[in-house]
Design a protein that fits this description.
The chain is mainly α. The protein contains two helices and two strands. The protein has a two-stranded antiparallel ribbon with strand order 1-2.
């Protein structure tokens, strides 16, 4: 499916960056228990996972996903 490789790479890279964020030694900005960059990485990972699941689901059901024309 178009974009699946991109989404898979985005997912892997985001999860890796999220994990590496715990190893940084600088003084970051925290939101709760997570660094701001980890929140961004987690958001990208969630979006990539959603896209991959959506593509897989449409491939299994045979439905075509169209971009919104709004």
């Amino acid at each position: 499916a178009p974009g699946a490789l991109f989404l898979a790479c985005l997912l892997v890279a985001s999860v890796a960056q999220f994990a590496l964020g715990f190893q940084r030694g600088d003084e970051p900005v925290f939101v709760g228990a997570l660094r701001v960059d980890q929140i961004v990485d987690a958001t990208f990972a969630a979006l990539a996972l959603f896209g991959l699941v959506r593509q897989h689901t449409s491939a299994v059901t045979g439905q075509v996903i169209h971009a919104s024309s709004h």
